[in-house]
Design a protein that fits this description.
The chain is an alpha+beta fold and 247 residues long. The chain folds into two domains: 3-78, OB fold (Dihydrolipoamide Acetyltransferase, E2P) (Beta Barrel); 86-246, de novo design (two linked rop proteins). The protein has helices at 86-102, 110-123, 130-144, 189-200, 213-230, 237-246; strands at 2-16, 20-27, 31-37, 56-63, 68-77, 166-168, 173-174, 184-186. It is elongated, with a radius of gyration of 19 Å. The protein starts with a strand and ends with a helix. Bound molecules: zinc ion. Residues 1-79 form the DNA replication/recombination mediator RecO N-terminal domain. Involved in DNA repair and RecF pathway recombination. Keywords: DNA damage, DNA recombination, DNA repair.
Length: 247
């Protein structure tokens, strides 16, 4: 077995046997991987705190045939502060679920990893619209998994467009005035502009936009429709998000 070192974030855990845990880590070097953490269920274990959900750290593990086996880890940021606020907890759980649902095991994606960590750091602050931040991450996730939106050209014919009233769910982008609007979602000009800004800007620029609930709902309709039409599993935390938004 060879030793492997990488940065990673714990996205999911599951009890395994009497004292162990199965841990899904989104890593910088190898994408999403499954690791067995011996003894991690016990609070006294050196593996306990480094395998808590959302923990971001430097991990050393042995690469086995099917599974990795955790050797040791050093916490960079435990992000446990996210767990004490219901809104932040729900959004961060949602991000982890999205990663779990949309990434293939072992496929490295260092840029997305960087965005994911940035997103957790920004969620951990208080000066940002969490909902828009999460939409921005969704757009980056879609881009890195082959479903990126093109909002500067017609998704059907390629003609340059400045705006559009429809987003194609078949070709992932705006549709020009001449093309068919089949299998698409209607969108306002304001929402289209915000979507284009989020799609092309780094996440730390999200605080520059300030939009109302209607526009946020329109943008969510676009991203959630693309996710649900391409991935069979639906994040469980979506229901919790709806509940939070209704209050
Ligand atoms: Zn067109």
């Amino acid at each position: 077995m060879s030793l492997f070192e990488t940065q990673g974030v714990i996205i999911k855990t599951q009890d395994f046997k009497e004292n162990d845990k199965l841990v899904w880590i989104f890593t910088e070097k190898s994408g999403k991987i499954t690791t067995i953490a011996k003894g991690a269920k016990k609070a006294k274990s050196r593996h306990f705190s480094i395998t808590l959900p959302l923990c971001y750290g430097d991990y050393m593990m042995f690469r086995g045939k099917n599974l990795y086996s955790l050797s040791e880890g050093k916490i960079i940021n435990s992000f446990q502060g996210l767990l004490s606020n219901l809104e932040k907890l729900t959004y961060s759980s949602y991000l982890c679920e999205l990663i779990d649902i949309s990434l293939i095991d072992g496929e490295s994606n260092p840029n997305l990893f960087k965005d994911f960590v940035t997103c957790l750091y920004l969620l951990n602050t208080d000066a940002i619209d969490y909902e828009l931040l999460v939409r921005s991450f969704e757009l980056k996730l879609l881009k890195s998994t082959g479903y990126g939106l093109n909002l500067n050209n017609c998704a059907n014919c390629g003609k340059k467009i400045n705006t559009s009233s429809y987003i194609s769910l078949a070709n992932y982008g705006g549709i020009c005035g001449e093309c068919t609007k089949e299998y698409s979602i209607r969108i306002s000009t304001a929402a289209y502009n915000v979507l284009r800004f989020l799609n092309s800007s780094p996440m730390d620029k999200v605080h520059r936009v300030n939009v109302n609930t209607e526009i946020k709902d329109e943008i969510f309709k676009v991203t959630s429709s693309i996710f649900s039409s391409n991935y069979a599993k639906k994040p469980k935390s979506l229901e919790m998000l709806e509940y939070i938004k209704e209050r």
